[in-house]
Amino acid sequence: MNIPGLKSNKEELVPYFHNKSILRDLILQLNKDFLSAGIKLKLLLTKKYSFQEITSLIAETLEQYPTQTVFNLLYRVDVSEGQLMQAMPTPGIDFILFSEVIVKRELQKVVLRRLYSQTNSERSED
Description:
There is one protein chain. This protein is an all-alpha fold. It has one domain. It is 69% helix and 0% strand. The protein contains 6 helices and no strands. It has helices at residues 10-18, 20-36, 51-62, 67-77, 81-87, 95-125. Helix 3 crosses helix 6 (95-125). The radius of gyration is 15 Å and the shape is globular. The model has no long low-confidence stretch (mean pLDDT 85).
């Protein structure tokens, strides 16, 4: 299984957004982390989203909050300064790029958690 990293291109992420279970876990993770950073995100579990739809909604949401709140979210999501610098070609705040990095990192968490729990299940069966 190819685990999406922050360098993954958008096309490689499409299959994850077609998997209802992974998409559900991603939405839950995003909502949890945004709420803990004090940001209200309106992603619904009953709606099917594409990568572009989620990143656009996140970008629109982030634009409404102070910069410090956005940086607190990036810390909460566990996006490093190096990862941000790698994703952003020029200095400044680009909410679309921030959103893409956030979604990729959150998706990475979801997939790794599933992979880890699957590996542990297989080990316990031995």
